[in-house]
Write a structure and sequence with these properties.
The complex is a heterodimer of chains A (255) and B (232). Chain A is mainly alpha-helical and 255 residues long. Chain A is 84% helix and 0% strand. In chain A, α2 packs across α6 and α6 runs antiparallel to α7. Chain B has 232 residues and is of the alpha/beta class. In chain B, 34% of the residues lie in helices and 26% in strands. Classes of the chains: A mainly alpha (255), B alpha/beta (232). At the A-B interface, α1 and α3 of A face α2 and α3 of B.
Chain lengths: 255, 232
């Protein structure tokens, strides 16, 4: 059932993202074309439009993160989504995965835009070959470290998404001012995580990352620290997922 | 055979307000049941509890002997009392959605009913009138081969001619072992199709009986009994 949920989630969200990507690419081409001319005013206008488009892409991403969860699950559309025979954890997972997908696509869209704007100043071929050279010179430790950093990054984003989901799903229990209460809960969860992390860091006396790096420069040691960071973050993400799933399974309160 | 829907001491509170109080109920298979009561009596709360959209404050509600979950959702076809379909979808999109998620949904049946009611499958839900949207929702719900149909105010927003078509659709579209629970306060319209009635007021179930019994023993129609019981 997860595949079908993904299909509909992509369908519902692509209506917002695809036109934006299209507009960004087109405006990048327009900007590039105007750069070689002397038309100052069109140049300024088109670059402002492109800037606004990028800001909207960022803003829409946040709005859609909240809206797809709140509107599709906790308001009238929730009558549909919670009466199809799927488990709430599939609903949460499908929304997360699709959100990640748009995140990656937005980054790619940004990179494409930069290449269009730079024109022949940025040689795609040379950048790729440079990247390959760097990759080929890395040893196994550096590879696994790079992998760790990527995993850590993904978990951090997941925590961000799940913080929103958890606060909305706790907020829906209340009969009034759900959105406002959810916002308060979001700040509460954020504070709790900060406290938790700083307690853990203190408790383990989590060696000063910078000092370790400066003194020993040993990648193995940094790797271990990163690994512990991954574990702690994964724990936080799992807890947030559990809370969201629990609220949607046992405490659903659709208006 | 066991009851299709059962409530045991079912209670639901919203803050200090009690929407349903200690409801005990058993609904058998193969019946058309009217859940009748004035506005705010707890009809919708009961139906939402049966769908797992609300969770009980106390007591339990069972469908096919199970608490609401994935298995009961396969067996229940539910018509909410409001617009609940994503309005960016076209009529044909939502039909695909239903056939994707419900094994017991028949697209052919749905398209037949759509053409009978002259609803264009290419229309976006957003552009449809309130009454047409209600018809689409009912078509989706009745195109499923379910054990239990929970219809919350199925005829509230449509004209009398469409009402007759909808009621006919309801009684001709379910099999003998299925039960249909219709919540409404438009009793005169549904009375002719009902086997049983449940009267509910202020969150309490005050009467359950068969329509035949009411006619024979009390010599009344359900409509006049309702007016007597709920006299303001």
């Amino acid at each position: 059932m997860l595949d079908k949920l993904l299909k509909y989630e992509i369908k519902a969200t692509s209506r917002t993202f695809l036109p934006l990507y299209g507009a960004i690419i087109i405006m990048s081409i327009v900007n590039r074309a105007l750069m070689v001319t002397d038309f100052l005013i069109p140049q300024v206008i088109s670059s402002i439009i492109l800037g606004v488009l990028f800001v909207s892409l960022f803003a829409f991403t946040i709005v859609i993160l909240v809206q797809r969860f709140q509107r599709n699950l906790l308001q009238s559309e929730g009558y549909l989504m919670f009466t199809i025979p799927v488990k709430p954890n599939s609903l949460i997972l499908s929304k997360m995965i699709v959100f990640f997908m748009w995140g990656v696509l937005s980054i790619i869209c940004g990179i494409i835009s930069v290449f269009i704007l730079a024109g022949n100043q940025l040689e795609l071929k040379r950048i790729l070959s440079d990247l390959l050279t760097v990759l080929s010179r890395m040893n196994i430790d550096e590879y696994s470290f790079a992998l760790e950093v990527i995993v850590l990054l993904i978990i951090e984003v997941a925590i961000g998404i799940l913080m929103v989901y958890a606060s909305l799903s706790i907020g829906q229990v209340f009969n009034k001012n759900k959105t406002l209460i959810s916002f308060g809960i979001f700040i509460g969860i954020f504070t709790l995580i900060q406290i938790f992390v700083s307690v853990v860091v203190k408790a383990f006396n989590f060696f000063n990352l910078e000092e370790t790096l400066m003194q020993t420069g040993d990648i193995k040691e940094i790797q271990i620290i990163t690994l512990i960071a991954i574990l702690i973050n994964a724990l936080i993400a799992a807890a947030l997922f559990y809370v969201t799933n629990y609220m949607l399974t046992k405490k659903l309160n659709l208006e | 055979m066991s009851a299709i829907l059962e409530c045991r001491n079912l209670t639901k509170k919203f803050g200090s307000k009690t929407a349903l109080l200690d409801a005990n109920l058993s609904i058998e298979r193969g019946r058309i049941v009217g859940l009748l009561g004035p506005n705010g009596s707890g009809k919708t709360t009961l139906i939402k509890l049966a769908n797992g959209l609300l969770t009980p404050t106390f007591g339990e509600i069972l469908i096919n002997g199970m608490t609401p979950g994935v298995e009961t959702k396969k067996a229940v076809s539910y018509l909410p009392d409001q617009n609940y379909l994503p309005d960016w979808m076209k009529v044909e999109d939502i039909i695909t959605f239903f056939s994707d998620f419900y094994d017991n949904f028949s697209s052919r049946k749905a398209y037949d009913m759509l053409s009978r009611l002259n609803i264009d499958k290419e229309s976006r839900l957003k552009t449809l009138s309130k009454g047409t949207k209600e018809k689409v929702q009912l078509i989706l719900v009745m195109s499923r081969e379910a054990d239990l149909y929970l219809l919350d105010e199925p005829i509230g927003g449509v004209d009398p001619a469409a009402r007759d078509y909808i009621l006919n659709t309801i009684i001709s579209n379910y099999n003998e072992n299925a039960t249909v629970l219709i919540s409404t306060h438009l009793i005169a319209d549904v009375e002719k199709v009902l086997d049983d009635i449940i009267f509910i007021n202020n969150g309490s179930i005050i009467l359950t009986d068969t329509v035949d019994n009411i006619r024979e023993n009390k010599g009344q129609s359900v409509d006049s009994l309702f007016r007597e019981v709920f006299k303001c």
